[in-house]
Write a structure and sequence with these properties.
This protein is an alpha/beta fold. The chain is built from 13 helices and 33 strands.
Length: 709
């Protein structure tokens, strides 16, 4: 990486310090405590967790976690039971012992204590005991339900399946996060808990934004924390397109296909920016299963298939009124290709249910598209012993051929499918109705940030029209057996141009708790607890989920997160937070002259590193700089995993922000051999730039065009 050749004087206004300014750590002003240490002699109230408990019977007093607490696994169930496989799409689901290992790791992140995990039928009052067989005692719990007892004999979890026991550990984990850190006291009592719906899903478009595998794992850590059990990944797509007559350069547009095969017949389709190997997916699915989730893969055809048609334009529909990403189902080669495509990749995945997409295709070819989905229903059943699901499309694909009732439908838009009619005709339906549950960063058509208050107050899995909730022609019964559940979706229609990794996680994490509440418990508690009282505790939980690094909100004792003035001859942090930096590759502190005190001199290969990877909005950064002569294009002034600040770019001498490969130029030109002050502040929608203490420019990270149209 070529960096700037520059002298850096870290000074901010008269205080002579360079600083990164941000609000103090979120949650520091939130009063949040786990109900415990009852001194009134009354029964403990229901503890706050998300989703809230279905039933709680409070006792008196507290149970206290200690460094000596053990996680004890009943040897009769340590390796799991047949029912574990019967109630998941995933082959070889995690066992009770594997879930205990995840729980152990999470507790260590919350408390710092590495609890011992043992397999034994003997446990004591200081232990957490995990066992199964709850259905024998309580047959109405369902396959994911559990019984939790916190009492004088320790903590006992008795679930129906190993996954159900894992959900009980999520309850305990949240109680620990909200407990007093001085003793981790949990209120004694017993819970009977179970989900209202069998599918609680988060769906994510990973085709149109490169997302590293480490981030995908964090989305699993996030959603499983709230007892979501399904993660649906959309593996291929392209920006929204018009017809070929309008998009004459359609074959040159960006497309995403995220599976990287060693087979030369398929390796060409994988993206160079981010793609996952078979081994990547193997390790990832093991991670997913150890957190109680199913992974549903989707390769979307015959539409959204630019990743294939750009290599084989003869496979696209051969007329100018069609979109370039539509595969021609009138061409038998296309059918053979898709069969071969799934034959190549289906074995990468453990799920017995696969999504074939099948939405937004040419409406003039309705019966052909219906024939296509029915064919692949049979193809998957015969060749792979698997079922399929699809996006609701029957309304926009009119025809006389009935879509096979065994195909699971993800309803997403009333103009494309009618969920009430689908159920009437015998189809299983999951509720992902847009725009209620659709989040598309920076869009004007869907939510940029999903309104979690609206979800908390109005949404339910059986409600497909939140503004007409009692209309039976627009909604289903909450007990409808063909309603499998629902969830929310993150689409990235504006490609990587829209948001950074941290910004995307922020958008996904905010409404997750509200959706979880409605999917698991329904409105039993939301009807009685106003959102404004629920939200502060929900925020504290969200900001303390184990395994999450994408928050990037460093702890700070005051307004400044980092402050370097170099006056001690090093990069000591003067903010009080002890985030001192390090001089690398020949960077050195020198006398700046001109009354400026100390400065750091940098060459193209030297730099200052800090212990912080990044920082979330809102923030401000200010520094003095003195470029030495002419600078190479794209020379880096500041950088993190989320972006760069460049002294110039390849086409302009102006200071430039770079994010996910996209460059945003400012109006600032740094004069050579002259001290200049540059500062910028960002709030998530725009970045304001200041040059020599004057407001110079606003950089908007939102492009109002539909990407390439």
């Amino acid at each position: 990486m070529r960096r700037v050749s520059i002298v850096l004087l870290a000074a901010l206004v008269a205080a002579s310090v360079a600083g990164i300014v941000a609000s103090p750590v979120p949650g520091s002003g939130v009063v949040a405590s786990q109900p415990s240490k009852t001194s009134c002699g009354c029964a403990n109230p229901t503890p706050f967790v998300i989703p809230s408990l279905q039933e709680w019977t409070g006792s008196k007093g507290d149970w206290v976690l200690s460094k000596g607490t053990r996680i004890v696994i009943d040897p009769a169930y340590a390796k799991g039971i047949p029912a574990d496989s019967e109630h998941t799409f995933m082959a070889n689901p995690a066992s009770l012992q594997q879930y205990a290992a995840t729980f152990q790791s999470d507790i260590k992140q919350v408390t710092g204590w590495d609890l011992q995990v043992v397999v034994s039928s003997k446990h004591c009052k200081d232990d957490i005991f995990l066992t199964l067989g709850a259905d024998a005692k309580d047959p109405d719990l369902g396959n994911e339900g559990y019984l939790l007892d916190i009492g004088n004999q320790g903590i006992a979890i008795r679930a129906v399946t190993s996954r159900g026991a894992f959900w009980a550990t999520r309850t305990l984990l949240q109680m620990l996060i909200l407990a007093d850190e001085s003793d981790y006291a949990l209120p004694k009592g017993s819970a009977r808990d179970f989900p209202n719906y069998g599918e609680r899903k988060f769906m994510q478009d990973i085709a149109r934004k490169p997302i590293p595998m480490s981030d995908l794992k964090e989305y699993v850590a996030l959603t499983s924390f709230y007892k979501f059990n399904t993660y649906h990944i959309h593996l291929n797509d392209n920006p929204g397109m018009q017809n070929k007559a309008t998009n004459k350069d359609w074959a040159s547009l960006y497309s995403g296909f995220r599976l990287k095969s060693d087979n030369p017949a398929f390796s060409m389709y994988a993206n160079n920016d981010t793609a996952y190997t078979k081994q990547d997916m193997r390790e990832y699915q093991d991670f997913v299963k150890a957190r109680g989730m199913d992974l549903i893969p989707e390769i979307d055809t015959p539409a959204h298939s630019l990743c294939f048609t750009k290599f084989h334009p003869e496979w696209s529909i051969q007329n100018t009124t069609a979109r370039g990403d539509w595969l021609d189902l009138g061409n038998q080669e296309v059918w053979t290709f898709i069969e071969n495509l799934w034959t190549e990749f289906v074995g990468w995945f453990d799920s017995s249910e696969i999504s074939i997409g099948a939405d937004e295709y040419d409406a003039t070819k309705g019966d052909l598209a219906r024939k296509f989905v029915n064919h692949f229903h049979d193809y998957f059943a015969t060749n792979f012993n698997r079922t399929i699901r699809m996006w609701g499309s029957d309304v926009k694909l009119p025809g006389t051929i009935e879509i096979n009732k065994s195909i699971h439908t993800d309803h997403w838009d009333w103009t494309y499918s009618n969920p009430v009619d689908l159920v009437r005709r015998g189809h299983k339906v999951s509720n992902l109705n847009a725009p209620d549950v659709y989040m598309v960063p920076r869009t004007q058509s869907y939510w940029d940030y999903i309104d979690d208050k609206k979800i908390y107050d109005l949404w339910l899995p059986h409600i497909f029209d939140i503004f007409d909730r009692t209309n039976s022609s627009r909604n289903l019964s909450p007990n409808e057996p063909l309603l499998t559940g629902g969830g929310f979706a993150n689409w990235n229609d504006f490609l990587s141009e829209s948001v950074t990794r941290v910004e995307l996680y922020d958008r996904v994490s905010r409404p997750a708790g509200a959706f979880a509440e409605k999917l698991w418990t329904g409105e039993k508690n939301t009807a009685n607890i106003p959102f404004d009282k629920w939200a502060p505790l929900a925020k504290k939980l969200r900001e303390n989920i184990p395994g999450i690094t994408l928050r990037h909100r460093p702890a700070s004792k005051g307004q400044f997160v980092i402050s370097y003035d170099f006056e001690d001859g090093d990069v000591k942090d003067k903010s009080g937070n002890e985030y001192s930096g390090k001089l690398n590759n020949g960077a050195k502190v020198i006398d700046a002259g001109e009354g400026h005190g100390k400065a750091v001199q940098l060459s193209p290969s030297s730099y200052i590193s800090t212990p912080l990877e990044s920082i979330r909005y809102p923030y401000a950064v200010g520094l003095w700089v003195k470029p030495s002569g002419s600078q190479a294009a794209n020379a880096v002034l500041l950088e993190s995993g989320d972006g760069k600040l460049l002294v110039s770019n390849g086409t302009s001498p102006t200071v430039t922000f770079e994010q996910d490969g996209n460059q945003y130029s400012t109006q600032i030109i740094l004069p050579a051999d002259t001290w200049s002050h540059i500062a910028f502040s960002a709030d998530g929608s725009k970045t304001s730039v200041f040059f020599n203490m004057r407001h110079t420019a606003i950089v908007n990270y939102y492009n109002p065009r539909w990407d390439v149209l």
